[in-house]
Design a protein that fits this description.
four-stranded antiparallel β-sheet, 10 strands, binds adenosine-5'-diphosphate
Length: 232
């Protein structure tokens, strides 16, 4: 199913923290629905702050952050929760629930979102197949390799059909073979119509993707390149 909706727009956004660190300085860009964008930059460049501002976890000091033409910082708590449910998150450290099986980790996300038992029975196997992990459904996270754990995390991020997937350094803990697999899965998700935002330090990934790259340095966008090269 191709979805293509919900544009993301940062309009002259600055973020100055309470201790006066300038994390973002007048940042503007637009991400079209269905785009695959990598955000790169050295440590301290502002990548995490940018993601936090998008998820309304931090407020901008100036400027606006729009999703589907609505400023996310004008939403009330319930609206923010609904909005966040539209964004699937994937982290470097996987963040799986250790006492639940692979199946239960994914089912739990669906229960929290109020999905029916019928949906859970059909959608959990569907996403496990998508990440090629159906055979590990009844294993616990500690019984999985790093690459497998990340594939579970991706399945979990996908299962409620978000419009946007944010993968925050998803391959930071993985070897090259698993890194390659995770990038292939992210490409597949993108091909299915989901907007993908990837932060990474991995130059090889960026070069092989050949997709748009937004480069941050000291809180500013120093490059926004459609052809997808890292440069250093
Ligand atoms: P990155 O994710 O690219 O490493 P960050 O967004 O974490 O960058 O940080 C950008 C800048 O903002 C850094 O100088 C950092 O020290 C500062 N910063 C980040 N979070 C906070 C905070 N909660 N309070 C004060 N300064 C912060």
């Amino acid at each position: 199913m191709i979805k293509y909706r919900d544009m993301i727009s940062f309009d002259r956004v600055s973020k100055v923290y309470a201790d006066e660190s300038v994390a973002l300085d007048n940042v503007s860009f637009t991400i079209e629905p269905g785009e695959f964008v990598s955000i790169v930059g050295p440590s301290g460049a502002g990548k995490t702050t940018l993601l936090k501002l998008f998820l309304a976890e931090e407020r901008p000091t100036e400027g606006s952050v729009l999703f589907d033409n609505v400023d996310v910082h004008t939403l009330d708590r319930k609206q923010i929760n609904d909005f966040r449910r539209n964004v699937g998150m994937i982290f470097q450290d996987f963040r799986l629930l250790p006492d639940k099986t692979v199946y239960e980790n994914i089912a739990f996300t669906m229960e929290v979102a109020g999905r029916t038992d019928e949906d859970i029975d059909t959608d959990v196997p569907y996403v496990l197949n998508l990440v090629d992990l159906a055979s590990k459904a009844w294993n616990f996270p500690k019984e999985l390799s790093g690459g497998e754990k990340q594939r579970v995390a991706i399945a979990r991020a996908l299962v409620n059909e978000p419009d946007v997937i944010i993968a925050d350094e998803p391959t930071g803990n993985l070897d090259p073979v698993n890194t390659y697999d995770i990038v292939q899965i992210l490409k597949k998700i993108h091909d299915l119509g989901t907007t993908v935002i990837l932060t990474t330090h991995n130059k090889g990934i960026i070069d092989s993707l050949g997709k748009r790259v937004i480069a941050l340095e000291r809180g500013a966008v120093v490059r926004d390149d459609k052809s997808g090269k890292y440069y250093v």
